[in-house]
Amino acid sequence: MAHADYRKVREAVERVVRERFNDVRIVSVDVTPDLDEDGQRILMIDVVFSADKKHLDSRKTVGLTRHVLPKLHEVDEPGFPVFSFIADSEMRKSKTEAA
Prior knowledge:
The chain is α+β, with helices and mostly antiparallel strands. It has helices at residues 6-20, 58-74, 88-98, and strands at 26-35, 41-49, 80-87.
């Protein structure tokens, strides 16, 4: 990451995700820096959650960016977060299909 310490960025994002989704088992949070179509820095954030919960609370997913942005600014990360939410059962299924 150009401006921020990657470990601090990942920890900040993961902390907010786990706090906001405290009723769901979060399997992993992966943060990958990227650029958007205009060359602006973004953070691709994949949140893998336990499949025992079929759907996440949309009120929490929609507002997540609002909670993450201040934490990113605290660790000097200018990238805009772009979230993907994936059930761990879908991860397993795609790995099985690829094999």
